[in-house]
Amino acid sequence: MRRSALLWACVLGTATLAAAWASVALTSHQGRVVFEPAWPAALWQAAEELQQQLLIFLRLPRVPAGILVGASLALSGLVLQGVTRNPLADPYLLGVSGGAGVGVVLLHALPSLVQSSGWWLIPIVAFVGAQGASLLVLLLARGSGGRLTVLGLILAGVVINSFCAAAMTFALARFDPFRVRVTTLWLAGGVSFASWHQLALATALLLGGWLFLRARAHQLNAFALGRAGAASVGVDADRLLLAAAVAASLLTGAAVSLGGLLGYVGLIVPHGVRLLVGQDFRRTLVVAPLAGALLLVIADAAARLLFAPEELPVGVITALLGCPVLLVLLRAQLRGRR
Asked: Does residue 174 surpass a pLDDT of 90?
């Protein structure tokens, strides 16, 4: 790994820790943003038991949830852009997040099943939905000769996203008003509903997905040469594409089960990381999760504090950041086709 990659990993890791501490220390009080550098230690000592419970189960999990969701989406976007050779690939744009969302929304339609099975069922259903959506997109996007095209991926992603949105709307129409409100807020994106059990499982999934991709960094680099180029150096393109789709679905399912349908993180971060450390997956796989974690921790703090005491969905912040980037990339693609 080049020294620049290690340097950027240290910088981004330090910045993420600083942003996490600042996110915890910044709070709103009577409509004003207050900075409490000794928080939560001072509050813990003076708090009653109920306040301590709120601190443990509601406030503190937000920061690790933001780190895990941002890192997972950044890795998923990085691998999708690499194996499809499409700079516009993103778990949200390609419908992978939508597939995970459909699974979770349908599960919310059966609250008795969740209560009897436990919290672990949500990430499993999210993974199954994400995997189904990703395979459908890859199947629909193949053109002549079985080749994946940028236009095919975009159109397939639009189709799958539209279907997933219709399925979620149909399911929500059958909900009672309270569950509609909670599920709608979750769909808009946010990391305020995570439990410590979910965080532990998401951490295991993120580490497993990262180790799987890191072990195949050389193969992913070869895939950048195209299917024929990958085959010339002994890489089975079809098998690698399927393995990468499974890994991206696993990471996306973990992210959606924690943070809902957060868009554009997987689009913005990989491009920024490649500008910093180049195209080599051995370097980008180290830097991308740290950059994604930093982005989402900052976005969550902004969503919580910009209009305090009201709170914006984090998906609004990421969309405001991602839409201009998407327009620039799409414009570059259109110019390149002339």
From this structure: no
